[in-house]
Amino acid sequence: MFNLYDLTGGNYHVHRVLTYPECPNSKLEFDAEVRAVNAGEWSTLLNVTGTYDGPTDIVSAKDYQLTWTTDGKTLIEKGSATLGRSSGGSIRSEWSSTFTSPGRSFRLPRSGESVRVSVAPFKIAGNSMSYEWEGTVRAGE
User: Fold this and answer.
1) What is the number of structural domains in the chain?
2) Which of 3, 40, 46, 77 has the lowest tally of Cβ within 10 angstroms?
3) Environment class of residue 128 by beta-carbon count within 10 Å: exposed (0-12), middle (13-18) or buried (19+)?
4) Mean pLDDT score of the chain, rounded to an integer?
5) CATH code at 57?
């Protein structure tokens, strides 16, 4: 079983591009530097750019899917999730990410990785949203 802390020692850069097929004019890019302060705490510097013109009443996530592959130097992630709306209906989110970690190489099983994720109901208060995300990564099935 792998996680980003095991693979990177808690120090990595991630570039993520997030799109929404139902909203073709929406595209967000995230650049983050993550540094392990200690085994239980990380510090993250995040820069978000782009445009979003989709719904703003997102309250849940389901059908979370994620795939990791690597070329040895970069961890490549492809993912998607269905976001539920308080007004009913849903919107699909899709992303691709690259992770790099200074002085580290990424080694995954030849069979790849399988990720199972559960996302707790979103908590919304004014302009703030939070949720709990828990995932398990295993050798491909």
Assistant:
1) 1
2) 40
3) exposed
4) 83
5) 2.40.155.10
